[in-house]
Amino acid sequence: MPKRSQVDDEFRQHVCGLIDAYITEHGLTDVDAARVLGVRKQMIRPYRRCKTLPGTEAIARACIHWNLSFSYQGIEISAKFFAPQNGHLRAVPQQLELPLDEPLEFQGTSKSVRDVQLVVRLKQVS
Is 119 contained in some domain? Predict the structure, then answer.
């Protein structure tokens, strides 16, 4: 197995340190942090202990949702880094309540079906 370069170790410690500080300062649970970063809750502990560098998607989510910024070889990685060309951040999904006791109709806001994602999870309560 190849040894990681010193720069990678420094970047991992930098990223993990900022993520750990944010989680601690805001009193987030591992479940809360995992939900925001889009990872399993089991991944939060290795991040916080600087054992594992979060993936690109998790770093992007930390930048966008927690307003964190990281520096790698003189390049600032922040929410602006992940913005599309028009300067607007991608839409953040919203949690919707669905009235499941009546028929549902969904109409996307985009002309292209590829731009719409609908995920429905049913959970029995009580």
Answer: no
